[in-house]
Amino acid sequence: MRPIRLPEPPGVDGMETPEIFSGSGTGGATVVRRAVLIGNGSPGAENQCLGLARALGLADNLTLYRVTRPRGGINEWLHFLPISLHKFIDQVLRQFFRNTRFAIVIQGRKPYRVLNGGLVGLSAVLEADVKKIVTVARDTYEKEGPTLVVACGWDTISYSSLIRKVASDNVFVIQIQHPRSRLDRFDLVVTPRHDYYALTASGQQEIPRLFRRWITPQEPPRSNVVLTVGALHQADSAALRLAAIAWHDELAPLPKPLLIVNIGGPTRNCKYGVDLAKQLITSLYNVLDSCGSVRISFSRRTPWKVTDIVFKEFAGHPKVYIWSGEEPNPHMGHLAWADAFVITADSISMLSEACSTGKPVYVVGTEHCKWKFSAFHKTLRERGVVRPFTGLEDISNSWSYPPLNDAIEVATRVREVIAERGWTVGG
Q1: Per the confidence metrics, is the pTM higher than 0.90?
Q2: How far apart are CA 41 and CA 277, in angstroms?
Q3: Cis peptide before 217 (omega within 30 of 0)
């Protein structure tokens, strides 16, 4: 059995511990010891916030808030609206249908169904509250120090920018993912390099001159922008070591090499369907002889027609296990114990996590991607962290590369900028 290969954490084998992991005692400097995270309910977005908090040593002292849109029925057609307007319309419609006590049907769906006068359209989740966050940050500043605010996702922008506007002396605000305009509303903006694809020569060629004024960003990154290769995440070396222990009994006995296949779902910039599923199946059959075992997982975005065809092909195959979607989710265990990965090209998050392990990562479906997704894949190939999955591979032949460490690199920059304010970051 091959030993698993995980990146060594800083400070082992006599190596000097980088400054980012050392103690933050700097005399009278104000210390940031806690974080407020603002997500939009998307696991991908909230994982980025949590990943940065972990890299800064604040994972044990954070609070997670969510900005949630009304859901269900007609709300699915209103997500293009600013969130404040969307919520206002939802309140009006809820009141109307509560008073009339009937439901309307649009295209066979019931947008609002009132049962016993109950609320409709909203889930019972923790909702972000700017006033509460600001009050706590101000009231606890003298005793507990400033608050780090990390937000991710389009719907969180108005919340994080307002927090900085009214409490700039008490908070340091980081917005993950490009906010499109007015970057000076945040202390730092963290965004992938491919978000600036529109400014490259290739990007300019793809955009008709008439539409360029509506394409963002329209200027190079400012000094408060930190560029990453991919998405931030929580799969650091410490998390993978814990996952290796937690999943030892289930994954360690599997025949090696263990190939993990992660299947996402089509997106606006990476469209595909059963054609890619059939291509993937053919390629997997071609490499099965060089695999000891294969485990396949789907994401929440995977279409049923894709999952169905994969299940029908491999259900009952002695070398192949397909995760049913029931808890516990083996994703972290897969990252820890895999010998190699095959990942569909649509998922920047799954690729970013796999490429942080230093293990072979094969990508399927890049030919379906366009615009900035193409730029992302080109960067990965140029760095030597991924290879195309053709079905001609010998999975037992391993290869490696310097792992991606976006979260650590961003955390280093955060510490530098916070130091300019006279603050430090400490757990």
Answers
A1: no
A2: 28
A3: yes
